[in-house]
Every structure is written in C-alpha cells, then in structure tokens.
UniProtKB/TrEMBL annotation:
It comes from Conoideocrella luteorostrata. InterPro entries: SAM-dependent_MTases_sf. This is Methyltransferase domain-containing protein.
Amino acid sequence: MWLIDVSRQLPEAHLHGLDYNLRQAPHQTWLPPNIYMKCLNIFEDMPDDPIGKYDCVHTRLLLLVVQEKDSRPIIQNLHRLLKPGGYLQWDELDTVNALIKKVNPDQQTLALDQLREWSRADSQHDWTVQFADFCIEEGFIDAKIDFFEDGNELARAFNDQHLLITEEFAQSLGELGHSKLAAKYLSLVEEAYDESVAGGALCVPRVVCVARKPL
C-alpha cells in the first residue's frame, strides 16, 4: 500500500518492492506502471545491482524476523542499498509500550493482558525503541524516532488485527504438532475477543525511525 500511495504522488519515480518471497504480492500487471517487484533477502549479502541505487528505502514490520534481538545486520544491508544522502524509514511495532485500553477502567481483561505480555516476548523486541541509536552506530546520521499510538476510533480495529495474528500463530503451532499449546492460544483469543466486545482493546503503538546516509 505504501508503494501504491507513493506511485500516485510521484508518478515519474521508479519504485521497487523488495521481498524474499513474492507469492503474496499482487500480479505485476495489476500494479501501477512505475512499481516493479523484485526478490531480495535482506539477511543475505547484497548482490551488486541494488547497492547504492536508492534515494529512499522504506521497510516495515520485520519484528518477528529480527534474529537474536539484533537489527544491526539488517540496518547494514539497508545502508548499502542507499545512495549517499539517501533516507531510510523503518516502521515497526512498539511492543515495549503496548497497553490495554478500556471503555470502563474497572473492566477485567485477563486474556488481553496475557496477550500483551506475550507480545513483549520477554523483552526480545525492546530494540525497536533504541532503533535510532543502532542506525547511528551503523553509519547513518540525523536519526530520529517518533512514536504513534492508536486513536480510540481505531483501537478496536487494530485489536482485532492482533487477535487474527495470534490465531494464525496458534494454527501454525497446531500444524507443527504442538496441539496443546495451539489450543491454549486459540482459547485465549476467544476470551480476548469477548473482552474486546465488552470495551477492551490491545493497543500496540507504532515506532517510526528516519535516518540519512551521509553524502
């Protein structure tokens, strides 16, 4: 969606969508003519073709694929993709500051509380709030980080999205043979949904970091 929005604003720009797997991407013929989809694995050494090619690199939601709490290898490869003076923008979930919103402060939200703790993953994702520092360490300048919280009008919609993600995770556990754990999470999702109907919502803010590659 980000590329499609940009293609409308900058119809003369060449826009590349990069991912290691394009099976979920729209067919090329359905995309605007200035968008091109290409396979690229950000965890591997960069091929020569894209190095130093881009004025701006935008990435988002790599939280679950960052290994060993360390985003630096990805930052290094994103740095290589940029031209001198180019900008990086990384949008990510801020599980550190996840919270439960309630219409009634006295409402019990035991299931939503458990999902909030699960999303924090024993502090494995705390790197997201330190992202600007990591960018500076890897050679970027002018790194700035901003935090965005869901408005009340969108709290329920994003809450349901989080529940769907948890449900998909539970189904994956079942397919891997972890039937008891899968059943536990599916039950938790059902309970959390009931709490949502009553006026609770799991809110996971967004963190956006912008940094520039030196000239």
